[in-house]
């Protein structure tokens, strides 16, 4: 910190106890009382008359009226600044520093302590100190700039604010190689060990980061910060990423980290002002590359706060336009934007839907080489040009994860889930596991959903794009419509083919000593699945199909049990490989017959007759290794396990 001492005489100013009276220790009694605000200064006329033109005029007027008191109104800096000026008039020692130099400069200007009154007057000496000391120091310039706020409009009229801003901007835009940077603490240091290690390095070998200046500016008032950043940007020497880091650091200093951290007595007006300033200071998007100056997480946090404090439409539109190009880099937590009343949902799904829609339109324009026609099917454009677009795939995963999160809201309507899910093209969703998770969560937390709504939301999922694990879960999910469960089973049977076992009996064909245990476990699972689908009192096509599915699955399990039990342990040990192959072929053949009968039972009579040849042909499979079914035993086991 720079400082400057003026005068040589010892300080003789004294305060009178607890009162606001100040006097000078001298052999001569005081002959003038100067009132500054609530303070009274008992001084002498001659030292004041020789330095201040204003005091000359006031003292002469008071003497003509026979008074020995003068009143100073509106002096910048108040009593403290006047005391500095009075000590200078007496030649006493005065110490100027970055904290009081601006106030002393404004008070000296107000009192008229210029070169016209006396040579080397206070105004001249303060200007020398400002130019040679304050404006050459980075820290002192910031301190002086902060002190100008309480001295407006004097500091503005004397160009002190502008000079401090220019000094700070010049140093911030200087080359890092010319900066003498003393390391104290940096927010990027992860531990105290890094700080100790940095202190061991010499200043010459220590690299100065490009954003060395951003933290020091965070202590400025929002208006001063705005002026400094405008001056920094006008010099066009700072890259956009450094400007973005400066804005992020200032937001972290003055804005809550998240909406949950906002206190109840938080000043929304202050946050609104800071938010508007940060958005206004962001680099323009004219070049196309400046949007990377701020991360997507930072922009979405600003958007959350804008919604929270009720920002205007223009501010939210500006933030949304900046978020859209980086939307695929966001996380699910970033998109959880709280909804404002009177919206009943916890999160603003409509806002996220609008962001996704803008992203898709922007991607479509880029894919069409800048030409986008409303008459062209958007899906065709994506299929042709964006199958390998990693950003689109990332966005689709993000949307599915967001749907699974907002599906827990009991007030979330089905239309919002369907609208956001269908906003993504099919080519961007190669797997439907994430979408199935969202559907399952929504159905679980909305048990009173109508059958029509269940069918609508379940139709979003393509069972052909489910993984094997998701198929296993969906096949046993009683919250899904029966039609979807049958589709899952049928597709899994088609996918496995004749080389593996069906989905419901996948673990029943092991060829080791644990065959009996696994078969019993499968029997329990199938029995639980059959009991989980109760038959309504009145027979309906859906109930008949559900009952038929359970009984046929039990017959297959009973037949496999009978085949394993009838063979004997020694015989099974001698022909393990032959039995394993026979089990796989027979299970595959029986599974095909199950689904043939299910599809026939679920279709009209005319359609069954017209396609009987195709159905019968699809059920033909090798039966040489399969044993004939014993109708008596099968029926008895079926009756036994069907008892509820």
Task: Describe this entry's structure for a reader.
Helix content is 55%, strand content 4%. The protein is mainly α. Strands 2-3-5-4-6 form a five-stranded mixed sheet, with helices on one face. It has a two-stranded antiparallel ribbon with strand order 1-7. α3 (78-90) crosses α4 (101-111), α18 (390-406) runs parallel beside α20 and α24 (515-531) packs antiparallel against α25. It is elongated. The protein starts with a strand and ends with a helix. 31% of the residues are buried.
Side by side, the strands of the main sheet go: 2-3-5-4-6
The number of helical elements comes to 30
Strand content: under 5%
First-last Cα distance: 90 Å
Give the overall shape.
elongated
In a nutshell, what does this entry contain?
The chain is mostly helical and 644 residues long.
Label this structure with key terms.
644 residues; mainly alpha; 5-stranded mixed beta sheet; 7 strands; 4% strand; elongated
